[in-house]
Amino acid sequence: MARKIGSRYTVHQVIGRGSAGTVWLGEGPDGPVAVKLLREDLAADQVLVGRFVQERTALTCLDHPRVVGVHDMVVDGSDLALVMDLVQGTDLRTRLEHDGVLAPLVAASVIADVADGLAAAHAAGIVHRDVKPENVLLDLAAPPGPGGAPRAKLTDFGIARLVDAPRRTRATRIIGTPDYLAPEIIEGLEPRAAVDIYALATVLYELLTGTTPFGGGHTGAVLRRHVTENVPPVEGMPDGLWRIISECLAKAPASRLRASELASRLRLLLPELAGVGPLAVPAQRTATEEAPTPGEAVYAEADAGRGTHRRRRGPAVPLVPGPTPDSTRDTHTSLRRPSAGELASYAEESRAQRTQPAPGAHRRTRAQQIRRRRTLAVLIAVILLLAGAAAAWTAFAAEAPAHAAGALSGAWHPRL
Ligand SMILES: Nc1ncnc2c1ncn2[C@@H]1O[C@H](COP(=O)(O)OP(=O)(O)OP(=O)(O)O)[C@@H](O)[C@H]1O
Protein backbone atom coordinates (compact mmCIF):
# COMPACT_ATOMS: atom_id res chain seq x y z
CA MET A 1 0.00 0.00 0.00
CA ALA A 2 1.72 3.20 -1.19
CA ARG A 3 1.39 6.36 0.85
CA LYS A 4 2.61 9.92 0.22
CA ILE A 5 4.82 11.57 2.86
CA GLY A 6 5.05 15.28 2.18
CA SER A 7 5.33 16.20 -1.48
CA ARG A 8 8.59 14.37 -2.23
CA TYR A 9 8.36 10.88 -0.78
CA THR A 10 6.23 7.77 -1.22
CA VAL A 11 6.41 4.86 1.19
CA HIS A 12 5.47 1.32 0.17
CA GLN A 13 6.16 -1.23 2.86
CA VAL A 14 6.84 -1.37 6.59
CA ILE A 15 10.35 -2.66 7.27
CA GLY A 16 10.41 -2.34 11.03
CA ARG A 17 8.88 -0.87 14.17
CA GLY A 18 10.52 0.78 17.14
CA SER A 19 9.20 2.55 20.21
CA ALA A 20 9.07 5.92 18.46
CA GLY A 21 7.37 4.84 15.27
CA THR A 22 7.42 2.76 12.12
CA VAL A 23 10.17 2.52 9.53
CA TRP A 24 9.04 2.29 5.92
CA LEU A 25 10.75 1.46 2.68
CA GLY A 26 10.20 4.48 0.45
CA GLU A 27 11.14 6.31 -2.68
CA GLY A 28 12.37 9.91 -2.94
CA PRO A 29 13.57 12.12 -5.78
CA ASP A 30 17.09 10.61 -5.48
CA GLY A 31 16.11 6.96 -5.15
CA PRO A 32 15.16 4.52 -2.37
CA VAL A 33 15.06 5.78 1.22
CA ALA A 34 14.02 4.59 4.67
CA VAL A 35 11.31 6.76 6.22
CA LYS A 36 10.78 6.74 9.96
CA LEU A 37 7.23 7.87 10.59
CA LEU A 38 6.82 8.89 14.21
CA ARG A 39 3.89 7.63 16.24
CA GLU A 40 0.72 9.72 15.91
CA ASP A 41 0.75 10.83 19.55
CA LEU A 42 4.32 12.08 19.15
CA ALA A 43 3.54 13.78 15.83
CA ALA A 44 0.57 15.53 17.47
CA ASP A 45 2.78 16.97 20.21
CA GLN A 46 3.48 20.55 19.15
CA VAL A 47 6.39 20.95 21.55
CA LEU A 48 8.02 17.85 20.11
CA VAL A 49 7.43 18.99 16.53
CA GLY A 50 9.02 22.34 17.44
CA ARG A 51 12.08 20.60 18.83
CA PHE A 52 12.47 18.45 15.73
CA VAL A 53 12.34 21.51 13.54
CA GLN A 54 14.85 23.30 15.81
CA GLU A 55 17.23 20.35 15.69
CA ARG A 56 16.76 19.76 11.99
CA THR A 57 20.25 21.04 11.16
CA ALA A 58 21.95 18.95 13.83
CA LEU A 59 20.09 15.83 12.73
CA THR A 60 20.68 16.29 9.02
CA CYS A 61 24.26 17.63 9.09
CA LEU A 62 26.06 14.41 9.96
CA ASP A 63 27.53 13.02 6.78
CA HIS A 64 29.77 10.03 7.43
CA PRO A 65 29.95 6.55 5.89
CA ARG A 66 29.53 4.95 9.34
CA VAL A 67 26.44 6.98 10.21
CA VAL A 68 22.96 6.43 8.75
CA GLY A 69 22.38 9.85 7.20
CA VAL A 70 19.16 11.76 7.81
CA HIS A 71 18.40 13.55 4.55
CA ASP A 72 15.19 15.29 5.33
CA MET A 73 12.51 15.86 7.93
CA VAL A 74 8.90 16.11 6.94
CA VAL A 75 6.24 17.83 8.98
CA ASP A 76 3.04 17.40 7.01
CA GLY A 77 -0.41 17.43 8.61
CA SER A 78 -0.37 14.61 11.12
CA ASP A 79 2.86 13.14 9.72
CA LEU A 80 6.24 13.73 11.33
CA ALA A 81 8.89 11.77 9.44
CA LEU A 82 12.65 11.39 9.17
CA VAL A 83 13.95 10.44 5.75
CA MET A 84 17.12 8.35 6.03
CA ASP A 85 19.68 6.37 4.06
CA LEU A 86 18.23 2.98 3.28
CA VAL A 87 20.46 0.27 4.72
CA GLN A 88 20.19 -3.13 3.05
CA GLY A 89 20.86 -5.68 5.72
CA THR A 90 19.90 -6.16 9.31
CA ASP A 91 20.45 -4.62 12.70
CA LEU A 92 23.11 -5.79 15.13
CA ARG A 93 20.53 -7.02 17.67
CA THR A 94 19.04 -9.38 15.11
CA ARG A 95 22.50 -10.65 14.14
CA LEU A 96 23.42 -11.19 17.80
CA GLU A 97 20.17 -13.03 18.49
CA HIS A 98 20.85 -15.25 15.52
CA ASP A 99 24.50 -15.99 16.33
CA GLY A 100 24.47 -15.85 20.15
CA VAL A 101 27.99 -14.40 20.21
CA LEU A 102 30.29 -13.04 17.50
CA ALA A 103 33.89 -14.00 16.77
CA PRO A 104 36.29 -11.44 18.33
CA LEU A 105 37.52 -10.26 14.91
CA VAL A 106 33.99 -9.59 13.67
CA ALA A 107 32.93 -7.93 16.93
CA ALA A 108 36.02 -5.69 17.02
CA SER A 109 35.59 -4.69 13.39
CA VAL A 110 31.90 -3.82 13.82
CA ILE A 111 32.61 -1.78 16.97
CA ALA A 112 35.53 0.01 15.27
CA ASP A 113 33.09 1.08 12.51
CA VAL A 114 30.62 2.39 15.07
CA ALA A 115 33.43 4.19 16.92
CA ASP A 116 34.36 5.93 13.64
CA GLY A 117 30.76 7.12 13.32
CA LEU A 118 30.76 8.31 16.91
CA ALA A 119 34.07 10.15 16.41
CA ALA A 120 32.48 12.14 13.59
CA ALA A 121 29.40 12.88 15.70
CA HIS A 122 31.41 13.90 18.75
CA ALA A 123 33.59 16.17 16.61
CA ALA A 124 30.35 17.87 15.51
CA GLY A 125 29.31 18.25 19.16
CA ILE A 126 26.61 15.57 18.98
CA VAL A 127 26.24 12.93 21.69
CA HIS A 128 24.16 9.93 20.62
CA ARG A 129 22.91 8.92 24.11
CA ASP A 130 21.30 5.65 23.02
CA VAL A 131 24.09 3.46 21.62
CA LYS A 132 22.90 -0.17 21.63
CA PRO A 133 22.75 -3.07 19.16
CA GLU A 134 19.29 -2.00 17.89
CA ASN A 135 20.79 1.27 16.69
CA VAL A 136 23.62 -0.33 14.73
CA LEU A 137 22.66 -1.36 11.22
CA LEU A 138 24.75 -3.86 9.26
CA ASP A 139 25.08 -2.94 5.62
CA LEU A 140 25.09 -6.32 3.92
CA ALA A 141 25.15 -4.78 0.46
CA ALA A 142 28.58 -3.22 1.10
CA PRO A 143 31.79 -5.25 0.61
CA PRO A 144 32.61 -6.88 3.96
CA GLY A 145 35.44 -5.69 6.22
CA PRO A 146 38.22 -7.69 7.92
CA GLY A 147 37.42 -11.37 8.44
CA GLY A 148 34.19 -10.98 6.47
CA ALA A 149 32.75 -8.63 9.11
CA PRO A 150 29.73 -6.69 7.85
CA ARG A 151 30.15 -2.91 7.65
CA ALA A 152 28.25 -1.16 10.43
CA LYS A 153 26.45 2.17 10.60
CA LEU A 154 25.09 3.96 13.64
CA THR A 155 21.55 5.27 13.47
CA ASP A 156 18.95 7.12 15.60
CA PHE A 157 21.13 10.08 16.58
CA GLY A 158 19.46 12.18 19.20
CA ILE A 159 16.05 10.61 18.59
CA ALA A 160 15.66 9.24 22.11
CA ARG A 161 16.46 12.63 23.57
CA LEU A 162 14.08 14.47 21.25
CA VAL A 163 11.23 12.06 21.74
CA ASP A 164 11.57 11.90 25.49
CA ALA A 165 12.62 15.45 26.15
CA PRO A 166 9.61 17.73 25.70
CA ARG A 167 7.18 16.19 28.12
CA ARG A 168 8.97 13.74 30.27
CA THR A 169 12.56 14.74 30.81
CA ARG A 170 13.21 16.67 33.93
CA ALA A 171 16.36 16.86 35.98
CA THR A 172 15.05 13.87 37.91
CA ARG A 173 14.70 11.58 34.93
CA ILE A 174 17.11 9.52 32.88
CA ILE A 175 16.83 8.88 29.16
CA GLY A 176 18.42 5.78 27.77
CA THR A 177 18.36 2.01 27.82
CA PRO A 178 19.25 0.68 31.30
CA ASP A 179 21.85 -1.92 30.26
CA TYR A 180 23.92 0.69 28.43
CA LEU A 181 23.69 3.68 30.82
CA ALA A 182 26.96 5.22 31.97
CA PRO A 183 27.21 5.70 35.75
CA GLU A 184 27.48 9.49 35.49
CA ILE A 185 24.05 9.64 33.83
CA ILE A 186 22.58 7.71 36.76
CA GLU A 187 24.34 10.10 39.16
CA GLY A 188 22.77 13.08 37.43
CA LEU A 189 25.69 14.57 35.49
CA GLU A 190 25.23 16.09 32.06
CA PRO A 191 25.81 13.33 29.45
CA ARG A 192 28.94 14.00 27.39
CA ALA A 193 30.66 12.03 24.63
CA ALA A 194 32.08 9.53 27.18
CA VAL A 195 28.58 8.11 27.79
CA ASP A 196 28.56 6.84 24.19
CA ILE A 197 31.96 5.19 24.73
CA TYR A 198 30.68 3.40 27.85
CA ALA A 199 27.61 2.21 25.93
CA LEU A 200 29.70 1.07 22.97
CA ALA A 201 32.08 -0.90 25.24
CA THR A 202 28.96 -2.51 26.73
CA VAL A 203 27.88 -3.52 23.23
CA LEU A 204 31.36 -4.94 22.50
CA TYR A 205 31.21 -7.00 25.71
CA GLU A 206 27.73 -8.19 24.73
CA LEU A 207 28.84 -9.21 21.22
CA LEU A 208 31.66 -11.27 22.74
CA THR A 209 29.81 -12.86 25.65
CA GLY A 210 26.11 -12.74 24.72
CA THR A 211 25.16 -10.66 27.78
CA THR A 212 25.71 -7.09 28.92
CA PRO A 213 28.15 -6.63 31.83
CA PHE A 214 25.66 -5.06 34.24
CA GLY A 215 22.30 -6.19 32.85
CA GLY A 216 19.85 -8.70 34.29
CA GLY A 217 16.95 -8.34 36.68
CA HIS A 218 15.09 -5.20 37.60
CA THR A 219 16.07 -1.78 36.36
CA GLY A 220 17.09 -0.64 39.86
CA ALA A 221 19.50 -3.57 40.10
CA VAL A 222 20.98 -2.69 36.73
CA LEU A 223 21.46 0.97 37.69
CA ARG A 224 23.08 -0.03 40.97
CA ARG A 225 25.58 -2.29 39.22
CA HIS A 226 26.59 0.46 36.78
CA VAL A 227 27.41 2.74 39.70
CA THR A 228 28.92 0.33 42.21
CA GLU A 229 30.29 -2.78 40.53
CA ASN A 230 33.31 -3.54 38.38
CA VAL A 231 33.26 -6.09 35.60
CA PRO A 232 35.23 -9.20 36.50
CA PRO A 233 37.53 -10.61 33.79
CA VAL A 234 35.89 -12.99 31.35
CA GLU A 235 37.55 -16.34 30.77
CA GLY A 236 38.86 -16.72 27.25
CA MET A 237 38.50 -13.04 26.33
CA PRO A 238 41.53 -11.92 24.30
CA ASP A 239 43.71 -9.68 26.53
CA GLY A 240 43.79 -6.74 24.17
CA LEU A 241 40.00 -6.63 23.93
CA TRP A 242 39.65 -7.00 27.67
CA ARG A 243 41.96 -4.02 28.29
CA ILE A 244 39.95 -1.85 25.88
CA ILE A 245 36.64 -2.87 27.44
CA SER A 246 37.89 -2.22 30.99
CA GLU A 247 39.21 1.22 30.03
CA CYS A 248 35.97 2.19 28.32
CA LEU A 249 33.82 0.93 31.20
CA ALA A 250 35.80 3.07 33.70
CA LYS A 251 33.45 4.75 36.17
CA ALA A 252 35.24 8.09 35.65
CA PRO A 253 34.24 9.45 32.23
CA ALA A 254 37.63 11.15 31.77
CA SER A 255 39.43 7.79 32.04
CA ARG A 256 37.61 6.32 29.02
CA LEU A 257 39.09 6.28 25.52
CA ARG A 258 37.82 8.78 23.01
CA ALA A 259 35.91 7.44 20.02
CA SER A 260 38.79 7.87 17.56
CA GLU A 261 41.21 6.18 20.01
CA LEU A 262 38.78 3.31 20.48
CA ALA A 263 38.51 2.81 16.72
CA SER A 264 42.26 2.83 16.17
CA ARG A 265 43.04 0.59 19.20
CA LEU A 266 40.51 -1.96 17.92
CA ARG A 267 41.87 -1.86 14.37
CA LEU A 268 45.43 -2.39 15.66
CA LEU A 269 44.20 -5.55 17.37
CA LEU A 270 42.48 -7.03 14.32
CA PRO A 271 45.49 -9.02 12.97
CA GLU A 272 45.94 -10.88 16.26
CA LEU A 273 42.20 -11.64 16.50
CA ALA A 274 42.15 -13.38 13.11
CA GLY A 275 41.32 -17.05 13.60
CA VAL A 276 40.31 -16.65 17.27
CA GLY A 277 37.00 -18.48 17.73
CA PRO A 278 33.94 -17.10 19.54
CA LEU A 279 34.07 -17.35 23.33
CA ALA A 280 32.47 -20.41 24.88
CA VAL A 281 29.83 -18.83 27.10
CA PRO A 282 27.33 -20.39 29.50
CA ALA A 283 23.65 -20.58 28.55
CA GLN A 284 21.81 -17.25 28.43
CA ARG A 285 20.58 -15.95 31.72
CA THR A 286 16.95 -15.38 32.47
CA ALA A 287 16.68 -11.79 33.58
CA THR A 288 13.36 -12.26 35.31
CA GLU A 289 14.84 -14.63 37.87
CA GLU A 290 16.27 -11.86 40.00
CA ALA A 291 13.82 -10.33 42.45
CA PRO A 292 14.26 -6.65 43.32
CA THR A 293 15.77 -5.69 46.64
CA PRO A 294 13.68 -3.14 48.58
CA GLY A 295 15.77 -0.26 47.21
CA GLU A 296 15.29 -1.51 43.67
CA ALA A 297 11.57 -2.17 43.90
CA VAL A 298 10.80 1.44 42.94
CA TYR A 299 11.87 0.59 39.41
CA ALA A 300 9.64 -2.46 39.09
CA GLU A 301 6.95 -0.18 37.66
CA ALA A 302 9.31 1.02 34.96
CA ASP A 303 10.00 -2.62 34.10
CA ALA A 304 6.36 -3.64 34.02
CA GLY A 305 5.26 -4.16 30.48
CA ARG A 306 8.52 -2.86 29.09
CA GLY A 307 10.48 -6.05 29.30
CA THR A 308 13.88 -4.42 29.46
CA HIS A 309 15.38 -7.65 28.24
CA ARG A 310 12.82 -8.57 25.67
CA ARG A 311 14.94 -8.82 22.61
CA ARG A 312 13.76 -8.35 19.17
CA ARG A 313 14.15 -9.13 15.77
CA GLY A 314 13.51 -7.80 12.44
CA PRO A 315 15.80 -7.08 9.55
CA ALA A 316 16.42 -3.61 8.22
CA VAL A 317 15.80 -4.33 4.56
CA PRO A 318 16.06 -8.07 4.09
CA LEU A 319 18.19 -8.98 1.10
CA VAL A 320 15.94 -11.98 0.66
CA PRO A 321 12.30 -10.82 0.78
CA GLY A 322 10.36 -12.33 3.66
CA PRO A 323 7.53 -11.47 6.03
CA THR A 324 7.53 -7.95 7.42
CA PRO A 325 9.16 -7.97 10.85
CA ASP A 326 7.06 -6.77 13.72
CA SER A 327 9.57 -5.18 16.02
CA THR A 328 7.35 -3.66 18.66
CA ARG A 329 9.62 -3.31 21.63
CA ASP A 330 10.10 -0.43 23.97
CA THR A 331 13.84 -0.18 24.05
CA HIS A 332 14.73 3.22 25.29
CA THR A 333 13.01 4.64 28.27
CA SER A 334 12.70 7.54 30.64
CA LEU A 335 13.41 6.49 34.22
CA ARG A 336 13.33 8.21 37.54
CA ARG A 337 16.88 9.06 38.57
CA PRO A 338 17.77 7.46 41.94
CA SER A 339 18.43 9.89 44.79
CA ALA A 340 21.84 10.14 46.45
CA GLY A 341 20.38 8.18 49.38
CA GLU A 342 19.20 5.39 47.11
CA LEU A 343 22.58 5.22 45.40
CA ALA A 344 24.24 5.01 48.82
CA SER A 345 21.87 2.22 49.83
CA TYR A 346 22.68 0.43 46.56
CA ALA A 347 26.34 0.64 47.53
CA GLU A 348 25.48 -0.84 50.96
CA GLU A 349 23.56 -3.66 49.28
CA SER A 350 26.55 -4.21 47.03
CA ARG A 351 28.87 -4.56 50.01
CA ALA A 352 26.43 -6.96 51.62
CA GLN A 353 26.52 -9.03 48.45
CA ARG A 354 30.30 -9.40 48.53
CA THR A 355 29.94 -13.15 48.26
CA GLN A 356 28.38 -12.60 44.85
CA PRO A 357 31.14 -10.76 43.03
CA ALA A 358 29.94 -10.84 39.44
CA PRO A 359 26.56 -10.26 37.85
CA GLY A 360 26.91 -13.74 36.32
CA ALA A 361 27.70 -15.19 39.71
CA HIS A 362 24.74 -13.29 41.14
CA ARG A 363 22.47 -14.89 38.63
CA ARG A 364 23.98 -18.32 39.17
CA THR A 365 23.41 -17.96 42.92
CA ARG A 366 19.81 -17.05 42.26
CA ALA A 367 19.41 -20.10 40.01
CA GLN A 368 20.97 -22.24 42.73
CA GLN A 369 18.49 -20.78 45.21
CA ILE A 370 15.62 -21.75 42.94
CA ARG A 371 17.04 -25.28 42.58
CA ARG A 372 17.51 -25.51 46.35
CA ARG A 373 13.91 -24.41 46.92
CA ARG A 374 12.65 -27.01 44.47
CA THR A 375 14.71 -29.76 46.13
CA LEU A 376 13.39 -28.66 49.53
CA ALA A 377 9.80 -28.76 48.25
CA VAL A 378 10.31 -32.29 46.89
CA LEU A 379 11.89 -33.38 50.19
CA ILE A 380 8.98 -31.97 52.21
CA ALA A 381 6.51 -33.70 49.88
CA VAL A 382 8.34 -37.02 50.32
CA ILE A 383 8.46 -36.59 54.14
CA LEU A 384 4.72 -35.77 54.24
CA LEU A 385 3.98 -38.79 52.06
CA LEU A 386 6.07 -41.04 54.30
CA ALA A 387 4.44 -39.60 57.43
CA GLY A 388 0.98 -40.22 55.92
CA ALA A 389 1.93 -43.76 54.98
CA ALA A 390 3.32 -44.40 58.49
CA ALA A 391 0.13 -43.06 60.13
CA ALA A 392 -2.02 -45.19 57.82
CA TRP A 393 0.11 -48.27 58.61
CA THR A 394 -0.14 -47.64 62.38
CA ALA A 395 -3.93 -47.31 62.17
CA PHE A 396 -4.15 -50.40 60.00
CA ALA A 397 -1.87 -52.39 62.32
CA ALA A 398 -4.02 -51.42 65.35
CA GLU A 399 -7.20 -52.64 63.66
CA ALA A 400 -5.66 -55.57 61.82
CA PRO A 401 -6.07 -58.33 64.51
CA ALA A 402 -9.80 -57.65 64.87
CA HIS A 403 -10.23 -57.55 61.11
CA ALA A 404 -8.16 -60.65 60.72
CA ALA A 405 -10.17 -62.48 63.37
CA GLY A 406 -13.49 -61.31 61.83
CA ALA A 407 -12.31 -62.22 58.39
CA LEU A 408 -11.13 -65.62 59.50
CA SER A 409 -14.32 -66.40 61.35
CA GLY A 410 -16.43 -64.99 58.48
CA ALA A 411 -14.50 -67.10 56.04
CA TRP A 412 -14.75 -70.25 57.95
CA HIS A 413 -18.32 -70.13 59.27
CA PRO A 414 -20.12 -70.90 56.03
CA ARG A 415 -18.13 -74.01 55.59
CA LEU A 416 -18.90 -75.27 59.05
N1 LIG B 1 17.74 3.46 7.74
C1 LIG B 1 17.22 2.25 7.83
N2 LIG B 1 17.30 1.39 6.80
C2 LIG B 1 16.75 0.17 6.90
N3 LIG B 1 16.13 -0.30 7.99
C3 LIG B 1 16.04 0.50 9.06
C4 LIG B 1 16.57 1.81 9.05
N4 LIG B 1 16.32 2.37 10.25
C5 LIG B 1 15.69 1.46 10.99
N5 LIG B 1 15.52 0.33 10.29
C6 LIG B 1 14.88 -0.90 10.79
O1 LIG B 1 13.60 -0.58 11.32
C7 LIG B 1 13.39 -1.23 12.57
C8 LIG B 1 12.92 -0.27 13.62
O2 LIG B 1 13.88 0.74 13.79
P1 LIG B 1 13.69 1.90 14.83
O3 LIG B 1 14.88 2.78 14.71
O4 LIG B 1 12.35 2.49 14.65
O5 LIG B 1 13.60 1.16 16.20
P2 LIG B 1 14.74 0.58 17.13
O6 LIG B 1 15.96 1.45 17.10
O7 LIG B 1 14.91 -0.85 16.77
O8 LIG B 1 14.07 0.66 18.55
P3 LIG B 1 13.82 1.96 19.42
O9 LIG B 1 13.49 3.10 18.54
O10 LIG B 1 12.68 1.51 20.24
O11 LIG B 1 15.06 2.16 20.21
C9 LIG B 1 14.68 -1.92 12.93
O12 LIG B 1 14.46 -3.31 12.76
C10 LIG B 1 15.71 -1.44 11.98
O13 LIG B 1 16.49 -2.49 11.60
Automatic annotation (TrEMBL):
Listed transmembrane segments: 376-396
Entry-linked SUPFAM superfamilies: Protein kinase-like (PK-like)
Ranges where the Protein kinase domain occurs: 9-270
InterPro entries for the chain: Kinase-like_dom_sf, Prot_kinase_dom, Ser/Thr_kinase_AS
EC number: 2.7.11.1
Keywords: ATP-binding, Kinase, Membrane, Nucleotide-binding, Serine/threonine-protein kinase, Transferase, Transmembrane, Transmembrane helix
GO molecular function, one term: ATP binding
Positions of the UniProt region annotated as Disordered: 285-369
Pfam families: Pkinase
Protein name: non-specific serine/threonine protein kinase
Source organism of this protein record: Kitasatospora griseola (Streptomyces griseolosporeus)
